[in-house]
Amino acid sequence: MIRVILPFHLRTLAHVEGEVQLEVESPVTQRSVLNALEARYPMLCGTIRDHVTQQRRPFVRFFACEEDLSHELPDTPLPDAVAIGKEPFFVIGAIAGG
Amino acid sequence: MSGVRVLVGTRKGAFILTSDGKRERWDVSGPHFAGWEIYHLKGSPFDPDRLYASQTSGWFGQIIQRSDDGGKKWYQPGTPPGEPTTMPDGTPKGESNKFSYDTSPESGKPLTTHQWYDGTQHPWEFKRVWHLEPSLTDPDTVYAGVEDAALFRSTDGGQAWQELAGLRGHGSGPKWQPGAGGMCLHTILLDPSNPERIFIAISAAGAFRSDDRGKTWRPVNRGLKSQYIPDPKAEVGFCVHHLAMNRSRPSVLFMQLHWDVMRSDDAGESWREVSGNLPTDFGFPIDVHAHEPNTVYVVPIKSDSEHYPPDGKLRVYRSRTGGDEWEALTNGLPQRDCYVNVLRDAMAVDSLDSCGVYFGTTGGQVYASADAGDHWAPIVRDLPAVVSVEVQTLP
What we know:
Chain A is built from three helices and five strands; from the N terminus they run βαβαββαβ. By secondary structure, chain A is an alpha+beta fold. Chain B is built from one helix and 29 strands.
C-alpha cells in the first residue's frame, strides 16, 4: 500500500483528510503513483501534472525519505521505503506567495 | 418578494451575498473554495440555481466548479470520486479543468504564437479562466474566456470544453500581446436578440465579433486609438478593459478602453469616444443600467501607472445621455484617503424596478446602490481583494 500526503488544497478538492493510501503495482514510480491517484480521485487530474504533457506543474514538488524527487524521471522507481509503505510520498506546493 | 444574489470572486475565495428586493439586509455566505483565487462566478439566466465558478491557483492550475442549487453545494463537473474515468465504451469522461487549445488539422487553426512583452513571439500557454458566460437559453452551455486568450465552450454543464478556434486562428494572433494582467479574454457578451452573435474582448488585442455562434470572428476596433499603436488603422493590439450592453439594445456597446470610454451604435463596426467631462478616462469596469439603455456607469482611475481613484475619492460616474456628460456619484462612498481599485469584472447591475448597481474593490468592500447609484452603502467591508462581481435577480 502506497501512502501519499497531499497539500491542503488538494485534500480539499479530493474530499479527503489525512494521507491517501493507494494500491500500486510494481514498479512503484512517480508515474504509477500519480496514475493511481488520479484514477481514484479524478478531480485531481491536471492539478499536479499537466493534462496533456504529463509534466509536473512548476510549483509542485515531490518529496520522500527526506529527498527532493521532483526532478527524477517519472519512471524512475521510488525508494523502497515508499514502495513498501513505510514512508509516504509527499506532494507539496512550493512555498511562495501570500 | 423578489430578491438578489450577488456572486463575488476574490483573491482568497468566493462569497455569495443575498437580500430581498429592498436590498437593505444582507446574508453573507463564504468563503467558498477558501484560499483559492476565484476569478469569476456567474449564474445561468435560464436557470438561476445553476452557477459556474472559475477556481484557480498558481500552484494547482484551473478548476471549474458548478452548483445546481444556487451556491449551497458545489462540485467539479466530470467524474465523481471513486467512479471510472471512462465511459462503458472506453471513451474518457469529461475533465472539467482540461482546457486544451485546438491544434487539430480539421480546425485549420494550428497553435500559433503571440507577441510577448519584449516584442518577440511566444507560444500560447493556458493559464486560467477569467470569465464564464452561461448561455441565455441553455444552462448546460457555458462559454469560458481564458488566458492565454482563447474562447472555449462546454455544452455538457462544464464537464468538457472545446475551443472555438476560429477566434485564436483569426490570423492576427501574432499581433496580440499581454496586458499588465496577462493576455486574457475577459469579456463575453451574448446578443439576446441574435443567437448567432457573440462579442468578446481581449487585453491587449481588442474587441471581436462572431455572427455564426463563434465559428468565425473578425476584429471590431475601428475608431479606437492608442498612443502605443502608431498605426491609425491598426486592426488589433488595443487594450480593451471591458464591454457592456443593455439587453434591449444589443447593437449599442459601451467600452472602457485602457484610456478612453467609447461607444458604438453599430455593433462594434465603429467607435467614438464619449469620455466627455470625466476627471480621467482610465478605468476598468463599465456597465449599463438594466432599464435605461443610455445610463452608463464607470469608475475613473487615476492612470495606468496609478491604479486608484483620483484625489483619494471613490466616485462612480454616471451618464444618463449615453456618454459625453457624466455626473459623480459619491453619496455613501469614501471621499478621502481611498486608494483601492475596481477591476474590470467587478461591477454589475440587477434588474429590479429600481435598478441596483454593485461593485467590489481591491480593498475588499462590496458596495451596493438600490437606486441606480444615487446612494451607496457597503454590503461587506473586509473581504479579500475583489476580482469579480455578478448579480442575479431572483424571482
